[in-house]
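Notes from hallway chat w/ T.B., transcribed later so I don't forget. T.B. wanted the structure written out for a chain they're using in a teaching module, and asked if we could keep both sequence and structure tokens in one place. Agreed to drop them here.
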Amino acid sequence: MELFQMWNGRLMPKQGLPGLLAAYVIFFANMTGCTVSPDKDLSRQPAAAQTTPAAKSGASAVASQEPGAMGQALTLQDLSVREDRGQTILLAKFSQPISQFRHFPLPNPARIVLDIFGNVKPTGQADSYRIDTSTVATLRVSHVEGGFRLTTDIAAATVPAYTITPEDGGLRIVIGAENPNATARKDVMIVRGGVRADIRTAEGSTAGAQGAVKSLGTDKITGEEKKYTGEKISLEFKDADIKNVFRLLGEVSGKNIVITDDVNRKITVRLVEVPWDQAMELIITTNGLGKEEIGNVIRISTADRLKIDSDKLAAARKSKETEEPLQTAYLTLNYAKVMKGPTDTTTDRDLVDRVKALLKSPLGKVEADQRTNTLIVRDIKSGIEDIQNLLSRLDTRTPQVLIESNLIETTPTFVRSLGAELDFRVGTGARADSRFLAGTPYVGSLTSVDPTVPTTLNEGLRLAFFQNRFGPFRDLNYALSAAEKEGNVKIISRPSVVTLNNVESTIESARIIRIRTTAATVGEAGNLREIRAGINLKVTPQVSADGFVLLNINVKSSTLDFGNQIENIPAENTREAKANVLVRDGETVVIGGILKDTSSNSETGVPYLKDIPVLGWLFKKATWQKDFEELVVFITPRVIASGSENLPTADQIWRDQMKQTDGSAPATTSSLKP
């Protein structure tokens, strides 16, 4: 008996009792091959214990997922950071709803580790972000086996109270206790649409209501083509009412359309496979109209009416601000100075001048108390909020960088010297002497003509013999002197120094020699002059907002040559290397090749006689010397204090450095752009 039939390409049960039995079979077969989705009350459990029943049963599918969802890799789509009332709020959204995760704090150093489980394609590359809130210093996102790992580095010494709860298929992380008196505010988008975004800070109050969002580090984006993402449609109308066309576009887009009464036109249009948002923009611009979009509502009117409405709204807002009562706020700053000091060259003008530009009431005023570093602001509520947002961006810690360096200097040396001394008499009258004592490292005196007189030998070898008569020669005296010296010096120093961002740090290991110079006039004492020789390392770090550090490195190694002196001042031999390197926070850069390899051979003797094979060694001395000096520098920058919110990204820093190198831009530090 046939229980199934083919319908529309699918196997379906037949009608009647057999078909009903077959339907039950299909139902129970499906029930055994899937699992139950998580209970709604599960989200109320502690975050560290939230796991789906599928994880416990080991099943390979979740009923709430679409077919083929398990084959899709889990990716991070959006990651935002917000600071309000002393709390740091992280919101992470992924390409799939998150059901399994765990978290735990670590005390040393203080950090929170969050593991998110899913089908993740490992890349081996970790991203580091500077958060710089009152509780969070940095955020690191890395791929681990079976999921993501978000490591939140805490700015304090201990881990504060925190909560992690599911929200809209993602995770909401709240760090720190609520403090109503906290004035710092921040709204940063780190990842947008699966792509790492430039840090953007949303302006508060009125600017935020108007949707004015400015990107740090960019002035104006030119030549960027607008992208349309709407569903593609085809339109063909002749003398159609424009309102009906907009109604059709509203049906396709799912948007709410509001059209004012002064929009009365007939249009003729033919568009094929065009995104609906592009079609709407073409119709609006072609007919001299304008639009404003608020949430899910699009308001369409003439350009003149939109301008008039905007002017009326601005005038009403201005009138309301004028009538609004004034409030007083006491804003204490931690790092910025309310007024420029007499020796302060790091600011171009007082902070009071910047704040006065944001006052909205004509009766508003700003006063500064230098003793407590506090600003006293009297203005309407929205003006005070704008000033608080400005101060939260300006009153930030300047990044401090720990420069860890390893300086390794090796100096192997080798010297060998041979010499000979010969004297004799021929007959009873003529006498010949040839004395070429071995040079350094041999230390000793020449052999005396009288063999009974002892000679001095401090270092080296002396081999001598004396013969009263040897053929026609009388009183034959011969001495061979030789010495060899080999050394290997290796100096390792590990100095570390902490410096501020864009401030040069110096590490020096030098030998200082003081020499008295010649007096300029009679009766005047000579001056002492210092001569420094050794290793000098200068590093200027520039921290970027995305975890990179640009290092401007200048390494100099110098030695003194006392064999070459002018007016008792030795010559200086210098080796120097300059480099600009862009590295990640905590990575090590190596600078090598600062070396000096010297080989010298010298031979001194009696002309012509010293060139005789074998016998020539009776009339000469020879010295072989080889010196090798090498310096290798290892530099590791570590950002140890926060404050990089308003800094340019690594790409902007590197481009500015290349412009300075090419000469197309002045050699100035990358400025911050509001």
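Follow-up for T.B.: Residues 6-13, 15-70, 198-223, 664-674 have pLDDT under 50 and may be disordered. Might be a good example for the class.
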